[in-house]
Design brief:
Number of helices: 10
CATH architecture of the largest domain: 3-Layer(aba) Sandwich
CATH topology of the largest domain: Rossmann fold
Distance between the termini: 34 Å
Structural class: alpha+beta
CATH superfamily of the largest domain: Alpha/Beta hydrolase fold, catalytic domain
CATH class of the largest domain: Alpha Beta
Number of strands: 33
Strand order of the largest sheet: 1-2-4-3-5-6-9-10-13-14
Mean pLDDT: 91
Number of domains: 3
């Protein structure tokens, strides 16, 4: 909902060849929605359609060259629509309330209008990320007859829990920032009047309609994305309860990404082999299969592919790589680590009495946010030591690990605590502590005391009474390495990721004062506070390199930009070669092939000892002549090993 489309940076100009028309599509109540329709420039109608519905303005949606790629090269109609009340569309901006299965169903009406146009073959797929993904989830829940598939990236499927109120706590930076940036701040009054979950939010909650979904959906998310769990929930829920075509053909791809899928940095770390370059190919293969009936095998791929994060300093390939599977989550053992006296985190449950830990939470001096699953403030994996040193943060840490611990799945924290306030919050952070002391954030969460049992009703605290606070940290996939430590930090604020609780029990954003809450966290036999980790057996994961015993001596990275028209950069990385590797040549060839298998461009050079090398290509052949638009293959070889990538040239 909360991020305009960002794609791989494109450097194109004057690529137009398609035909564009702007139409006003009537909805069932007579309101008309402005839609740009891009048609391929050459004959061949009717075509399948890719639909994008956006609140960010259809005119700013795509670079011109992407439209050419979708229309003239891939032969799809592209329809880009301003949602109700936004930009050129009529009606009142309703913040997605009219995009689903309520009285008004704008997505449904748009799909069915497209299906009967003379340029349409009746097949419609949808595409987009964030808000553009949310509109897809809501559309899928209405089950229009001519919707054939969706390609959803980093999107919420239940706006109340995934976006607005996490564990009952208001996601301040996310919602306030998005409403401000989209000139929709007037909508905030609705949330102030409706802070608890109630039936009005059902039309924004796909889980109420899983059984109505009957189309294949490709779900793409990131472990540090602002909507991680909502996307995973949609995948799992539709697989379990969706129609036959939906339950059998859901795909889940989760990488080490923030909400910006195409930024290699994930906070203060950069994971290797993140693979965001393949998303473009995946998208077209998905549409080609479901909209053009091409047997390209994408429907037979494993249902789940996830990136297993780990020590970013590791180079042996055991972690920081992609894992394929058929189910989510994979089989695991629910393993509790208990809070213990002295700041320890242990597999041994407390046996007897232990002195509880206490801190004061002042809403006027909250713990500042340092990374995490954010949108419009810094997101991703950040070192937490600057906030762990505060007096209002409790820290519990294991001894250095003697064996690696793989954690894949959903993480939960149970905190037994008391407060002298009638309402307050408790927060939790899971961190990977490196041998050098860095405490790198893995996942975090929060629960509001009044909503510790349910998001529907409020149950205030009896001051001084010990109760249990469940905190959901959502899902992740990481290996805590040998010599690392696992850390859990407990506090009562995380600002401005979440709204500070004033501790007064007054209605949301209607408080007249703030009070300091005196918090006590218990960890004894009767109150076994713990974090529960889904621990996987690392022996069950294919060993790295098991598919090939040949050493990797170089890496051909995806060219940037791609697609391109005037120039692209072909990037290579060479690993150090050892003297024993006598079978590998010092001479390397870089070659470009067209779809006929003809080599049109070749470079030959001596292999660098180690490091990066970049070669620019201007889309020309060996004679310096411009090559036509189309798909090309780039191959790097030293005579024994070979890597290849696909590149798209647009004139």
């Amino acid at each position: 909902m909360f991020f305009s489309l960002v794609w791989v940076p494109l450097l194109f100009r004057d690529a137009s060849a398609y035909h564009k028309q702007t139409v006003m599509i009537p909805m069932r109540d007579g309101v008309q929605l402005a839609t740009d329709v891009y048609l391929p420039s050459l004959g061949g109608a009717p075509w399948p359609t890719i639909l994008v519905r956006t609140p960010y303005g259809k005119e700013t949606f795509l670079d011109d060259a992407i439209v050419v790629l979708i229309t003239d090269i891939q032969k799809y109609v592209l329809a880009v629509q301003d949602t109700r009340g936004r930009f050129d569309s009529e009606g009142v901006d309703s913040l997605f309330f009219h995009d689903g299965w309520g009285r008004l169903q704008d997505g449904y009406d748009t799909v069915e209008w497209i299906a009967v146009q003379p340029w349409s073959d009746g097949k419609v797929g949808t595409w987009g990320l964030s808000a553009l993904g949310i509109t897809q989830y809501l559309l899928a829940g209405t089950a229009p007859p001519h919707l054939c598939c969706c390609y959803v990236m980093v999107a919420a499927s239940n706006l109340y829990e995934d976006a607005l109120f996490y564990g009952g706590a208001y996601r301040r930076s996310l919602v306030d920032g998005w409403l401000r940036d989209t000139d929709s701040e007037y909508l905030l009054d609705f949330f102030i009047q409706h802070p608890n979950y109630e039936p009005v939010y059902d039309v924004l909650n796909l889980s109420t309609r899983y059984d109505s979904v009957n189309v294949p959906i490709f779900h793409v998310g990131g472990w540090h994305d602002v909507f991680t769990q909502g996307l995973i929930n949609a995948f799992c829920g539709i697989r379990e309860r969706g129609g036959v075509r939906a339950s059998e053909y859901q795909k889940l791809l989760v990488g080490p990404w923030t909400h910006n899928l195409f930024n290699s940095a994930c906070g203060e770390v950069i994971y290797p082999n993140t693979g965001f370059e393949t998303l473009w190919d995946d998208m077209f293969e998905w549409f080609d299969h479901w909209l053009k009936d091409r047997d390209n095998g994408i429907d037979r791929r494993p249902a789940v592919r996830y990136y297993l994060m780990g020590d970013i300093d590791r180079t042996d390939g055991w972690v920081n790589r992609w894992i394929d599977g058929d189910v989510w989550p994979p089989p695991s053992t629910q393993t509790p680590l208990y809070l213990r006296e002295g700041g320890f985190l242990s597999q041994e449950a407390p046996d007897g009495n232990e002195t509880p830990d206490a801190f004061d939470y002042d809403p006027d001096d909250p713990v500042p946010t340092v990374g995490g699953r954010n949108l419009n403030i810094p997101a991703g994996c950040y070192d937490q030591r600057s906030v762990e040193s505060r007096d209002d943060v409790l820290v519990y840490t294991t001894d250095p690990l003697e064996e690696p611990v793989g954690v894949v799945g959903r993480i939960s924290v149970t905190v037994w605590a008391s407060s002298d306030a009638v309402d307050t919050d408790f927060t939790a952070k899971l961190c990977d502590v490196y041998p050098d002391g860095r405490s790198m954030l893995v996942a975090d969460g929060i629960v509001q005391a009044r909503h510790r049992r349910t998001l529907w009703d409020e149950e205030f605290l009896i001051p001084g009474q010990t109760v249990v606070f469940p905190i959901d940290l959502w899902s992740t996939a990481i290996v805590f390495d040998i010599g690392h430590r696992i850390r859990l930090a407990i506090s009562s604020s995380n600002f401005n990721r979440f709204e500070p609780n004033p501790n007064t029990g007054e209605p949301f954003r209607q408080h007249t004062a703030t009070v300091v809450a005196h918090q006590t966290v218990y960890h004894d036999t009767d109150h076994p506070s713990a974090i529960v980790l889904p621990v996987i057996g690392l022996s069950d994961i294919p060993a790295p390199g098991a598919e090939s015993s040949a050493p990797v001596t170089f890496l051909l990275k995806q060219n940037v930009p791609n697609p391109f028209n005037d120039e692209t950069q072909i990037m290579m990385y060479f690993h150090r070669m050892y003297p024993q590797n006598a079978g590998y040549s010092d001479q390397v060839r870089l070659e470009i092939y067209n779809l006929k298998g003809q080599c049109v461009k070749r470079w030959e050079f001596w292999r660098p000892v180690e490091g990066s090398l970049t070669v620019p290509w201007h889309g020309d052949d060996d004679d310096g002549q411009h090559l036509p638009s189309g798909l090309y293959f780039c191959r790097l070889t030293d005579g024994s090993a070979m890597e290849a990538i696909k590149m798209t040239l647009i004139r």
